[in-house]
From TrEMBL:
Gene Ontology CC annotation, any one: membrane
Domain of life the protein comes from: Bacteria
Name the UniProt record assigns to this protein: PTS fructose transporter subunit IIA
Localization (cell): Cytoplasm
One Pfam family cited in the UniProt record for this chain: PTS_EIIA_2
CDD domains: PTS_IIA_fru (cd00211)
InterPro entries: PTrfase/Anion_transptr, PTS_EIIA_type-2_dom, PTS_IIA_fruc, PTS_SugarTrans_NitroReg
Keyword Transferase: yes
Gene source species: Cellulomonas oligotrophica
Signal peptide as annotated in the record: none
Length: 153
């Protein structure tokens, strides 16, 4: 199964996420990871992400949420992406998030998730990158843009 090695696949993208708060938005992305077999315990991983969010809000300027966690429940480094028509407060100074990137990393892995986080953050400062994701018509396009722009080759 080659898709398990890809950081992001279309099945890990929700282009029409609807959520009232960041907990609900995160949970929907966690469920995508679980459905894809990348998370063995959705509740456990959701709790790990929530604990990380309590340490520090992961909202970024430009309408972005970047929840992330290392967890024993994660089987492979993964990135789930959600696009929200109605933004959700993620603790960013400039308002709600419309793009959410959930980074899931295995607990016993190395610092790969930090490399992913850094690469993603470098791209997210560019409005053109954020806009290309917001404009993407489907999950396949979102996955292709992120893979091309973020994933180290």
């Amino acid at each position: 199964m080659t898709s398990s090695t890809s950081l992001i696949t279309p099945e890990l993208v929700a282009v029409d996420l609807v959520a009232g708060d960041r907990t609900a938005a995160t949970r929907q992305l966690v469920d995508l990871l679980a459905a894809a077999g990348r998370v063995t315990d959705a509740d456990g991983f959701a709790a790990d992400v929530a604990a990380r969010e309590q340490q520090m809000a992961t909202g970024m300027p430009g309408g972005v949420g970047l929840p992330h966690a290392r967890s024993a429940h994660v089987t492979a480094p993964s990135l789930a992406v959600g696009k929200l028509a109605q933004g959700v407060d993620w603790g960013a100074p400039d308002g709600p998030a419309r793009l959410v990137f959930l980074i899931a990393a295995p607990a016993e892995g190395d610092a790969d998730h930090l490399k992913i986080l850094a690469a993603l953050a470098r791209r997210l400062v560019h409005e053109s990158f954020r806009q290309s994701l917001l404009d993407a018509p489907d999950a396949q396009t979102v996955a292709e843009i992120v893979t091309r722009e973020v994933v180290p080759s």
